Amino acid sequence: MIQKISLFILTAALLAGCSPSMTSLTASKRYEKPTPEKEEKFQEVMIKVAQSTQENPIYHRMALNSPEEKEWFKDLMYRLWDRQITRKEFIAEGTAKYPDHIYEFSYIANAYQRF
After folding, report:
1. Could you give the CA distance from residue 1 to residue 14 in angstroms, rounded to a whole number?
2. Considering only CA atoms, which of 48, 51, 57 is closest in space to residue 114?
3. Residue 28: which of 90, 100, 99, 74 has the closest Cα?
4. What is the number of alpha carbons within 13 Å of residue 67 lying toward its C-beta?
5. Rounded distance between C-alpha atoms, residue 76 and residue 10, angstroms
6. Distance of CA 26 to the CA centre of its chain
């Protein structure tokens, strides 16, 4: 339990120093849909990232219940993977919608760098 709290505090402290301003959120690049080839590669990496979250006892799944929420999350992950947005933008957009999941968005951003 102490490890979880320490990790959360460390993550929050790191993110506090890296928070983008609101202007960078609104100035985000336009979303480019994936080509079939990119979609296939992205799916492979997305599966690896999803599997790695299941192996992490600290990671808590986000409640993505509607098709719109699932599509939003997939598009956000694709934009990160395709380098249409930065890691900071990914975390900021994600936590704007799901503020209780700072760790999860940070974890995903780091996982995409590994795969």
Report:
1. 20
2. 48
3. 90
4. 0
5. 24
6. 18
Residue 13, pLDDT > 60, answer no
pTM: 0.71
* Cβ atoms 21, 91 nearer than 8 A: no
Contact indicator for 94, 76 with CB cutoff of 8 Å: yes
Query: Which two structure tokens, joined as six digits, stand for 7?
Result: 């990790």
Q: What is the mean pLDDT of the chain?
A: 81
Pair of tokens at residue 36: 């079939």
Please name the residue that has the structure tokens 């599997």.
51
Rounded to 10 deg, the angle between the 102-114 and 87-97 helix axes is: 150
Candidates 6, 19, 115; CA nearest to 58 is 6
Looking up tokens 């929050």 gives: 12
Q: Read off the amino acid at residue 65.
A: N
| Structure tokens, 28 | 């985000």
